[in-house]
Write a structure and sequence with these properties.
162 residues; mainly alpha; 80% helix; 0% strand
Length: 162
Amino acid sequence: MLSRKIIAASISGTLFVILLGFVSPDPFEEETVVAQNYLYSALSIMYGYLLFSFPVILGYGILSSIFSDIVAKFLSKKLGKENVEMIISGILHIVFGLVILPYSLAASILFFVTDRILKKQKENFHWSKAIKSFLLPFALSIVSMGTAWIVEFISNFEDYLV
């Protein structure tokens, strides 16, 4: 169960950062992002979003998801209806996601959906897959920082010739 939660955190955390990067490419709104700089701004800010959101999703998200699933399983057995387990777990994920509206709510919903998709596969997720899942956020950070470095190098190319 824990390895599946780690995989769900890696996938949903990476998806969250990508979506947030394209929705809010300039979080400080210092200047209007024109169409030419939109992709650059979105890709380069993803590293910052990843740096701050991924550890929270990995720690808080996994713990609250495990707690939500345990409570939902207990309540569904107590009520005698196993089909309400997913509903109770979803509600608890949303409640735990209300910490920093709207960002944490979106992250918790993505986590819940990703975890349910993985759970539906009924695959035994080994620790090796959980470790390999960290390649997703790592690859995103390489792409994000690489984009920022390449654009910076191209825009200041004349300075490097001296």
